[in-house]
Design goal:
- The protein is an all-beta fold.
- The chain is built from no helices and 11 strands.
- The strands form 2 sheets. Strands 2, 4, 5, 6, 9, 10 and 11 form a 7-stranded mixed β-sheet that branches. Strands 1-3-8-7 form a 4-stranded antiparallel β-sheet, with no helix packed on it.
- β5 and β6 form a beta hairpin.
- The radius of gyration is 13 Å and the shape is globular.
- The termini are far apart.
């Protein structure tokens, strides 16, 4: 079975950094696109970043460009999201997702999801 285990969330002050991890198992990691989504209270889930199975291309939500970096470690079957210069509006539950095929910012295109990790940016 496909399993995704997200971790690394927490409480951080504005301007701070966090690194999210998503450990994958149950599938051939190198064949799958990996994405991060987030969902804030009362809002729809939105795509934050995506990395293809060949590491390029990589995509970022406009509001996160220059602050977030996605990467993947094939040896560890893990995808990371380095988040710097965090803002209060980045507060949300962050989810990792995976599927075969190209990167997509649409949640409905992904069959497999992790459980989510809470990120709170507040002073």
């Amino acid at each position: 079975d496909v399993q995704l285990q997200a971790s690394g969330g927490g409480l951080v002050q504005p301007g701070g950094s966090l690194r999210l991890s998503c450990a994958a198992s149950g599938f051939t990691f190198s064949d799958y696109t990996m994405s991060w989504f987030r969902q804030a209270p009362g809002k729809e889930r939105e795509g934050v970043s995506c990395i293809s199975n060949e590491e390029t291309p990589r995509y970022y939500l406009d509001s996160t460009k220059g602050r977030f970096t996605i990467s993947r470690d094939e040896a560890e079957n893990t995808v990371y999201l380095q988040m710097d210069s965090l803002k209060p509006e980045d507060t949300a539950v962050y989810y990792c997702a995976t599927d075969e095929g190209r990167c997509s910012g649409w949640a409905r295109t992904y069959r497999y999801w992790g459980q989510g990790t809470q990120v709170t940016v507040s002073s």
